[in-house]
């Protein structure tokens, strides 16, 4: 301190760059002194602060990877803030490592003047196309593992209710949701007025008493302090360089870990999707199993009933069945060879009437006689022209083919004459076409009702 009792107002301009941020490589006890907030308020109220200057507030953070220690957070972290829809337009802001993600979220909304009722989400972009949602708003910047120069983007819910990043459809936050993280920055002048109202003259007396003691101690410590400052500058410069290199190394490791974490998340999403598909397939499989089990139960019941009626001649027919199985295997092998040669086109000679159709049409109803004939389980002989002869009246066979081709009876395709319908019903019964037979039965019943009404 000088000869004057009032050395002037507090001026931190020598610590600041032109943009108002703290300049690099400042040394504690030489360029600045750290004081508690209460002491700063009293000092600024007594001596005053240079015009257009705000206090340089810093917080205590835990430092270290394995062994934690407390230190003053001298330099804040720069984040590039922007909108997800306009990632190229970013605003650089400083944040403390102890600031919560919720405060960062609120700050971005304030900077870009987002409508208080609109929902928003924040994303961390650490690669050109890689995003991570910052969902836990109670986490601090340090706990969220954000690093210097991090790009943080704000996503605004669209007017139709959707999100730009549709992969994640989780909810967002409105202005009221972020109210707990909001900070009201009180101007420096209001703070000083509030403190000065509580100050009394005893603080000025205390400073006068200490002034003489400090002046005597200043001369004694001047030489040793200058030497200490020089050595401290050298040592702190080396340590800062080492710490910067270490910080860059940690940032690189953090980037690699985040990349690995992103790859893991993508693989986890793929596995989850695959697991979902497997569960769906499992449900279908269980359903099919139940249907098969019910079908098997019915068949087993029928088989048991048949066994009760044929138990006496079962032993005699066993040898016959085994023989027929051998013949069936032979027939199968023969039909496999025949099927390789035969084309899909089939010619039928039904009672002297020639019809051309396809294997697909004839085997459409699996339980019909035609499907059994052309299933490949039985060898069939053809005439010289390659047609298969069926010893039935071919007059109405075209109705049978049309039924199989159309997969049912279309309106107006069958005659309304009762006698003709009976003849077609007889053919349907012979060829074991239950659907055609039921349709004809319904038509004949309707014809009977109409006749009664007449």
Task: Please provide a written account of the structure.
This protein is an alpha+beta fold. It has helices at residues 37-47, 101-111, 188-198, 201-310, 314-341, 359-362, 369-373, 397-406, 418-430, 434-453; strands at 60-63, 69-72, 77-83, 86-95, 120-127, 130-133, 150-156, 345-350, 353-358, 388-390. The strands form 3 sheets. It has a 5-stranded mixed beta sheet with strand order 4-3-7-5-6. A 3-stranded mixed beta sheet has the order 9-8-10. It has a two-stranded antiparallel ribbon with strand order 1-2. Strand 3 (77-83) and strand 4 form a beta hairpin.
Give the secondary structure arrangement, pairings included:
Layout: H1 37-47, E1 60-63, E2 69-72, E3 77-83, E4 86-95, H2 101-111, E5 120-127, E6 130-133, E7 150-156, H3 188-198, H4 201-310, H5 314-341, E8 345-350, E9 353-358, H6 359-362, H7 369-373, E10 388-390, H8 397-406, H9 418-430, H10 434-453
Parallel strand pairs: 3-7, 8-10
Antiparallel strand pairs: 1-2, 3-4, 5-6, 5-7, 8-9
Helix pairs in contact: 1-3, 9-10
């Amino acid at each position: 301190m000088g000869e004057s009792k009032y050395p002037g107002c507090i001026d931190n301009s020598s610590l600041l760059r032109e943009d108002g941020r703290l300049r690099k490589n400042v040394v504690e006890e030489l360029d600045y002194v750290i004081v508690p907030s209460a002491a700063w308020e009293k000092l600024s109220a007594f001596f005053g602060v240079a015009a257009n200057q705000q206090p340089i507030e810093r917080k205590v953070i835990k430092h270290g990877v394995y062994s934690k220690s407390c230190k003053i957070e001298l330099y804040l972290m720069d984040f590039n803030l922007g909108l997800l829809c306009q990632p190229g337009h970013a605003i650089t802001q400083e944040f403390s490592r102890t600031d919560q993600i919720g405060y960062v979220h609120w700050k971005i909304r304030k900077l870009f003047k987002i409508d208080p009722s609109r929902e928003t989400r924040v994303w961390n972009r650490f690669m050109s196309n890689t995003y991570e949602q910052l969902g836990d708003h109670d986490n601090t910047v340090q706990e969220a593992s954000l690093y210097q120069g991090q790009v943080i983007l704000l996503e605004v819910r669209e007017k139709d209710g959707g999100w730009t990043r549709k992969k994640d459809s989780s909810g967002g936050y409105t202005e009221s949701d972020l109210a707990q993280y909001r900070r009201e920055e009180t101007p420096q002048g209001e703070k000083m007025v509030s403190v000065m109202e509580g100050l009394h003259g005893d603080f000025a007396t205390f400073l006068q008493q200490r002034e003489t003691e400090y002046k005597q101690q200043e001369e004694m410590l001047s030489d040793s302090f200058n030497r200490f400052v020089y050595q401290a500058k050298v040592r702190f410069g080396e340590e800062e360089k080492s710490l910067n290199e270490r910080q860059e190394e940690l940032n690189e490791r953090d980037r690699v870990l985040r990349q690995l974490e992103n790859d893991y998340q993508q693989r986890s999403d793929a596995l989850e999707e695959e697991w979902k598909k497997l569960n769906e397939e499992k449900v279908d499989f269980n359903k099919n199993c139940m249907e098969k089990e019910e079908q098997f139960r019915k068949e087993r019941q029928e088989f048991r009933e048949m066994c009760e009626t044929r138990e006496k001649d079962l032993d005699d027919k066993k040898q016959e069945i085994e023989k027929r199985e051998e013949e069936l295997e032979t027939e199968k092998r023969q039909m496999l060879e025949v099927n390789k040669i035969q084309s899909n086109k089939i010619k039928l000679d039904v009672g002297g009437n020639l019809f051309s159709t396809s294997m697909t049409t004839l085997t459409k109803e699996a339980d019909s006689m035609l499907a059994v004939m052309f299933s490949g389980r039985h060898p069939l002989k053809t005439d010289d022209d390659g047609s298969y002869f069926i010893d039935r009246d071919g007059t109405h066979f075209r109705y049978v083919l049309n039924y199989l081709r159309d997969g049912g009876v279309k309106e107006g395709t069958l005659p309304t004459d009762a006698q003709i319908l009976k003849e077609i019903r007889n053919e349907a019964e012979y060829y074991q076409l239950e659907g055609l037979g039921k349709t004809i039965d319904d038509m004949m019943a309707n014809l009977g009702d109409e006749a009664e009404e007449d």
